[in-house]
Design goal:
It is a single chain. This protein is of the alpha+beta class and 142 residues long. It has 2 domains: 36 residues; 99 residues, Sandwich (Immunoglobulin-like). It has 1 helix and 7 strands; from the N terminus they run H-E-E-E-E-E-E-E. The chain has a 4-stranded antiparallel beta sheet with strand order 1-2-3-6, with no helix packed on it. Strands 5-4-7 form a 3-stranded antiparallel beta sheet, with no helix packed on it. The longest helix has 35 residues. It starts with a helix and ends with a strand.
């Protein structure tokens, strides 16, 4: 009987450990998702350069002045992204929205090897001619 009790106790400890790890991973994943989608609370903007807006606690964004860039596609917009601590991999995704407010697609851009507080230039373009505006939906920095 003692052996069965020990086995059940071991199974119980393993089960509790697995549940705890799963909860920790889910919480961590949710925080990363909120950060990349710009929905996490921004707690420190002291590092954000003038003219930029904090997207989350790690990345800030500003749009380049119209006429300061060009593109080959019918519609484009240039983003300037700065990372507090740098990014081995930087990813930005924007929703394409028409004049009526409908989501008509998306476009994205990447960069890599971005140093701390170094400006990364991301040219977001589309052949979707009815896209009236670009709305950022995700910026990931890893």
């Amino acid at each position: 009987m003692k052996i069965i009790g020990n086995i059940l106790g071991t199974i119980g400890v393993l089960f509790i450990g697995m549940v705890g790890c799963t909860a920790l991973f889910a919480n961590s994943y949710n925080n990363v998702t909120k950060e990349s989608e710009g929905t996490a609370e921004v707690t420190d903007t002291s590092w954000v350069p003038a003219g930029y807006t904090a997207w989350n606690n790690e990345v800030a964004l500003k749009w380049s002045e119209p006429g300061s860039y060009s593109c080959d596609s019918p519609r484009c917009l240039q983003a300037e992204v700065v990372s507090k601590d740098g990014c081995d991999s930087l990813y930005m995704e924007v929703a394409l929205v028409d004049a009526a407010g409908n989501n008509v697609g998306y476009t994205n851009e990447t960069s890599s090897g971005v140093k701390p507080l170094q400006k990364a230039i991301l040219l977001l373009d589309t052949y979707q001619e009815n896209a009236a505006r670009f709305e950022p939906s995700k910026i990931s920095c890893y």
